[in-house]
Design a protein that fits this description.
Radius of gyration: 16 Å
Number of helices: 4
Structural class: alpha/beta
Strand content: 5-15%
């Protein structure tokens, strides 16, 4: 599901601060797509850091993985429903990095799983459309469509030493 940058802003504006530094990780090549967001945030892209971070020395086929790792460490994350780990999708999702940066990415489920592995609460993740915005904010056992999102059972109690039926608050 691809939504416009105007819709991204409209659906998520309450989550972010005006003029935040916004880092966008996406396979969208036409950066003018993001101009509506540039009215509200200071936009940055991975390619802005190619030289300074030595990314030009890496295999270009792993750039999607680099963006995914960066995206998983944000203060909050906003993703697209049905977004899977296929990097060449024209889907977007937001994430606010700890240092008040923002990311757009196309691998929502995997990023949410990584955030779970790091011990981040589901209440720090959101979806880009109003009808599913708070979907990760309550414990839910998976059923039916399993690829539309990630499920806490993928990271909670994975050692098998206890059965959990709700998200625990990290100590």
């Amino acid at each position: 599901m691809k939504i416009t940058a105007d819709d991204w802003y409209k659906n998520t504006r309450g989550l972010f601060k005006k003029n935040e530094i916004v880092y966008i990780a996406t396979d969208e090549r036409d950066t003018t797509f993001f101009l509506p967001l540039a009215k509200h945030y200071k936009l940055r892209f991975l390619r802005n850091f190619t030289e300074s971070a030595g990314l030009d020395q890496l295999d270009p086929n792993i750039m999607g993985m680099v963006d995914t790792i960066i995206a998983s460490r944000g203060r909050i994350f906003v993703g697209t429903w049905f977004s899977t780990c296929k990097w060449k999708l024209s889907l977007l999702c937001f994430i606010v990095i700890t240092y008040n940066s923002l990311i757009l990415l196309s691998v929502t489920g995997y990023i949410n799983r990584m955030r779970g592995y790091y011990g981040m609460s589901g209440t720090t993740s959101f979806y880009s459309t109003p009808d599913r915005k708070l979907n990760t904010h309550k414990w839910q056992n998976h059923s039916k469509i399993l690829t539309a999102r990630e499920w806490p059972t993928a990271w909670i109690g994975i050692d098998g030493d206890e059965a959990l039926f709700e998200e625990q608050i990290p100590l």
